[in-house]
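Suppose you are handed only these lines of text.
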Amino acid sequence: MDNGRSQWGSNLGFILAAVGSAVGLGNIWGFPYKMGKSGGFTFLLVYIAIAVLVGFIIMMSELALGRKTRLNPIGAYTETKKAYGFLGVFAVLSPFLIMSFYSVLGGYCLQYLSLNLAEASFGLQNAFGIQLTGSNTFGAMLTNPFGCVVFTLVFMIICYLINKGGVSEGIEKFNKIGMPALFVMLVIVIIRALTMDGAMEGLKFMFVPGYAVSAGFIAEQPSFINVLGTAGGQMFFSLSLAMGAMITYGSYLGEKEDIRKNSGIIVFADTLVALMAGIAVIPAAVANGIQNGIAFADIKLSGPNLLFVTLQNVFAEMGVVGPIFGVIFYALVLIAAISSAISLIEVISAYFIDRAEKKGKESNRGKIVLGVCIAIMVEAALVAWDGLGSNGVWVPGQQSIGVLTFNDCWLDFMDCWSEGVMMPIGAMIMALLIGWELKPDFTLNELKNGATFGKGFEAFYAVCIKVVVPVIMCFVTIGQLNDFFGKNVVNYVISIAILAFFFVFTLIRGLKNEK
Ligand code: PHE
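From them, the structure of the protein bound to phenylalanine can be written out as follows.
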């Protein structure tokens, strides 16, 4: 072990944990819908191109940065170049904000798991004549804030128990069982979904270019810039990039493991699960909508509505086996949520553990993880109580501030600063830092421990990290700002200004380094 720091038990354990972090709510509720809406198969090609040219590159860079410094994100950036400590702060603060709602959504999964367990046990619909459709239950759940806070707490306790166990005894162990289980359950749900009448329409929505428009799911095809922004934003969140997770997981990785190969496997597995999740949920959702005579435009295929309204409708109307499939499905989503949440908690915990050790103190993982989980629970209670804006809790940005009206609810508020602002800007500056100031060899030298590659790969990495990643990240930043704060030319100006400023900044500092 290096300087007493935890390590993964095996490379496979690391891969499963990293895939666990990547595979999460983003894959299930974001990817399929965005793919359908933004051009089906065409979107998939754009997504894969960005995943290879940007996602794969940043994945390798983050894992290498983590392993090289053996530190949390703040420590890793500060130790590498003091001036960029703020990137580390972004990468620790973002997970904290994301967890405020990720834990609440995990709580919802537990609640829908309980609902389906109760229906399977007591046959509530038949015995008491209550309709357990998503349309009935979701509103009832959101306007019952006490229950939401309690289940958020249960979700956090589960995560706490795993993280407290440590890197290899907690996180790795959970994923070694959780990931294979998730895969099996996903296959079961896919088989059921594809055998429903009308499932074909759903597949067409996902795969056939332009079908979403021609069938009336959406009014018009988004522009190419929008598609690029959507694909990029989705890819980042889905691969757990620019949130410190891969830097932290990389810091526990053995000296001789092949980071390049591992990164390829993680990117591939995450994309595969996103596609499989789409095939599991979209056909069922569309088939059920058709059977109930709902217009395509009104079938809800994204976000919390997809998971907790549309799909619960499917389970409630499926007959006796419905709740069983409901249990399998929500258990699957729950595992995906836990395996991502524990990586986010680990980012923040690692910071405090490293900090204690730097001060020469013996760090107490249990106590630190408990503290982190309590802090998350406090902000999460607010998001849970808010119930996606159902309970009239005040949130900044809900009323217009000048031209800006950007938040419907606390979930949006937390999401817009993390996913909308810090994530894309952080990744853009990170690429410039490595490409122009530290130089690509910074990462490549670390990759050489464990991988052998030729000049071709080195050139590919160099071109991507210097030019392709920063430019695409600029588009992604514009797209995210447009998404969260409303379309505005100001977003273009801000994004391009940051790109230009840090390009010049890193270039000058890079030239000085050479002297
Ligand atoms: N990748 C996870 C998902 O798709 C979310 C996540 C983001 C997890 C960043 C960790 C870090 O849901």
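What can we learn from it? The chain has 21 helices and no strands. The chain has a mean pLDDT of 90.
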